Amino acid sequence: VVQFLKDGQSSELEPLRRLGARVYSGQPGTKFFSQMTPEEREEVRARHNDLLRQALESPCDLLVLDEAVPPPVEENLLRRAVLERPAGREVVLTGRDPAPWMQEAADYSTEMCCHKHPYRQGIAARKGVEY
Predict the structure, then answer these.
(1) How far apart, in Å, are the Cα atoms of 77 and each of 16, 50, 56, 70, 74?
(2) Which of 15, 79, 100, 118 could pair covalently with 123 via S-S, beta carbons 3.0-4.6 A apart?
(3) CA-CA distance, 126 to 131, in Å (whole number)?
(4) Facing residues of 62 across strands?
(5) In the chain, alpha helices (H)
(6) Looking at residue 29, what is its pLDDT?
(7) Is the model's pTM score more than 0.85?
(8) How far apart are the C-alpha atoms of 78 and 93, rounded to whole Å?
(9) Residue 125 CA neighbour count, 13 Å, CB half
(10) Alpha-carbon gap, residue 110 to 129, rounded angstroms
(11) How high is the pLDDT of residue 126?
């Protein structure tokens, strides 16, 4: 699992780690890409490129690239992860508004759409429900 723009503290990671998944994560305090200065974006992109390269060097059957859309890494590196993957490796990309090449390469494409959520009524995330 490569988590882009996340710090490795998400609660869903603990069960994955217990099952033996290798998790590559960013650093705490990372802003949304849209909130970063051009310099911050380049620094984060360089770190994420390194995380993805590390993950690509590790053998696995399933590679999850969390928040990979839009790409927070060099596009050619992401294309390599998706289009040049070893036989038998599944690759999952999460995020919004995938590029046409991603849609074309996908075996599955799902769009989740929130119609209603307690957060919109001012209810904070609840342990055991949202996390």
Answers:
(1) 25, 10, 10, 13, 5
(2) 118
(3) 7
(4) 90
(5) 13-18, 38-57, 75-83, 100-105
(6) 65
(7) no
(8) 10
(9) 5
(10) 22
(11) 87
State both tokens at 23: 């998790």
- For residues 119 and 92, the answer to whether their CB atoms sit within 8 Å is no
CA distance 113 to 10: 21
* pLDDT for the residue numbered 28: 65
Hey, what amino acid is at 119? Y
CB 7 within 8 A of CB 28: yes
- How many residues does the structure list for the chain? 131
Written as one letter, the residue type at 102 is M
Short-list 34, 45, 35, 43, CA closest to 4: 45
62-90 per-residue burial string, b: 16 or more CB within 10 A, e: under 16: ebbbbbbbebbbeeebbeebbeeeeeeee
In eight-state DSSP terms, residue 74 is -
**β-sheet bridge partners, residue 64:** 92
| Average pLDDT of the residues in 91-117 | 92
Instruction: Over range 34-51, report the average pLDDT.
Output: 89
Residues 6+ apart with CB under 8 A from 70: 33, 95, 96, 97, 99
